[in-house]
Amino acid sequence: MSRYEDDEQFRLFVQRQWGRLLRTAYLLTGDRGTAEDLVQSALEKTHRRWGRVLRRDAPEVYVRRVMVNTAISWRRRRRPLEVPLLTSDSAPMPDAYAQVEERQLLLTALRRLPPRTQAVLVLRYFEDLSEADTARVLGCSVGSVKSQASRGLARLRVEFTPPAPQSPVRLQEDPA
Length: 176
Description:
- This protein is mostly helical.
- It is 69% helix and 0% strand.
- It has helices at 3-29, 32-48, 50-56, 59-77, 98-111, 115-126, 131-138, 142-159.
- α1 (3-29) crosses α4.
- The radius of gyration is 21 Å and the shape is globular.
């Protein structure tokens, strides 16, 4: 296959997979800008080996593996520059925002997990990959995926407590 054909196949692959790869990267990093950087970095590394990746007939698996490894590497090297603010004692968000708030709490709890466990949960449950596909992406055994997922879900159950629904305040009438 010519270099031009390889480049064209890579371009088509990026067009088809960009959204899914960006979603995975966002779930791994928690920041859209960092997620875009992660996808770009993974695609750059993949492009260098595109001919070999195509021969193995699994470009999605290869790119996801590169993304997970790169995200873990970045997380080990970098310390967060932003410090989250403490939750305020202000009035709770309206009910319309409850689902968004719950999702944010879940993502925050997910980011506190070890990088490998986080990767397993993202690939297994957010990307809906099978245990075997997750193991292939991470380069580990299916048993390792199962144990990491089990431990990660157990920790999320302990750490993630969605906000209790707010009951309306009722004023008591004065009987006098």
